[in-house]
Task: structure prediction
Amino acid sequence: MRQHSARSVRVVSIALVWAALVWAAPLFAPAFAPVLAPAPALAEDLKDMIYDPGQLKPVDSTLKVRPGQLAPDFALPAISGQTVRLSDYRGKKNVVLSFVPAAFTPVCSDQWPGYKLTQEMFEERGAIILGISVDNVPSLYAWVVEMHGLWFPVLSDFPHGAVAKRYGLLRTSGTSERAIVIIDKKGVIRFVKAFDINRRPDLGVIMGELDKLQ
Amino acid sequence: MNRLTAPLVMLLLLACAAPALAAPKVGDILPDLVIKAAPLPHEAEYLGLPQGVKQFRLSQIKAEALLVEVFSMYCPRCQAAARSVNQVFVNLTKLPQGQKLKMLGLGAGNSAFEVNAFRKQFAIPLPLFQDGEYELHKALGNVYTPTYMVLKAAPGGKGFEVLFIQEGPFADGEAFLNQVLRVSGVQ
Result:
C-alpha cells in the first residue's frame, strides 16, 4: 500500500512538472517555439485548404546581392503562360520581387492577397510586383485561383530555384526565403532583405523603401 | 491508485493546458487586454478614452459590453466583410444601445501602417488597432480571421467574459447585430 502511495505521488509530481513546463515553455525556452508559438492569424476561409508547416528557421540562406548593384536578370514562366524577364521593366517600372516560400501555406496565402488590396499604393509609387516561388506553374496557378486572382505576375522558379539561388535566397529545404528585393527603374537593387519566413514583411517597410525612390 | 491513474492525471493536466492555445468558448474569461496603440481622436471620443492616450486597457472603455473583431488586412474574407462590418457599426451607433455596446477591431499581426491601409481602403469608421506582435491574438486564443466576439467585464475586475464568439464572416448584418445585441444584454 505504501509502495503504491509513493508511486502515485511520484506520478502526480511528474505530471505537475510536465504541465508546468507546457505552460511556462514559451517564457523560458525558444526551443519550444515550434510547438507552442501562436500561429499567424490565419484567414478563416483557408483553414481547411492549406498545409501548415509550423514554425521554421527564420532565415536559412546567405544573400548574394546587395543594394547598389545591378540586379541579376532572369526570365521565368508566369502562370499567364508568358515568360517574364526582369529587364523588360527597365526604364518603365520600379520592381518589387516578392519571394515566397511555398503555395498553399499559411503566411504566403495571405501575404499576396494583402498586396491585392493595396495595388493602388504600389502603382502610386510606379512599382510592379513580381511574385516568385519555387513551386511549379500548375500549383501556382491553382493557388492564385484560390486567392481569387492577383493583379501582378506570378512566376515559377521551378524546379531548382535558380533565381532564388542567384540572389542568395534559396533555403536548404529547396524553397525560397520570404524576401523582398526592390529594384529601381535603372535596374539597380535599392533594398533587399530576407524576412523571418514565419511572418509577413511589414507593408510599411516596403512602402517606405519605395518612397525613397521617388 | 490503480495503473490507470498516471495516464489519467497526465491527460487531465494536458487538457487543462490546451485551452491556452485554443479559441475561447462562451463563458470563458479572457484577460483585460492592454491595447498598445493610440486611438485616433474620434476613436478616443467614441470609446470614452482620454484624448492623447498612448495605450489603454479594455476595461477603460466606457461601455457595458464590447463587440471585438479580430481581423487582418491581409485576410481576403476580412476584406470582403469590411463593408458589412462598417454597416453593422453605423446601424449600432444609431441605436440607443450603441452607447453601451462599443465596437473595435484588432489587426492580428498587422502593423500600424497596415491597419491604416485597411482603414483607408474601406473607409472604416470603427476604431481599429494594430497587434503587430500577435500579443492580443495569442491572448484571444489564436482565432482565425475574421472572428467576432462579444465581451463583458467579469465581476470583480477579473477580465472579460466571452458572451459570444463567431469565427468566420456573418451572412446577414442585421441578423448578426440583433444576435449580438441579444447576447450582450444591453438595453
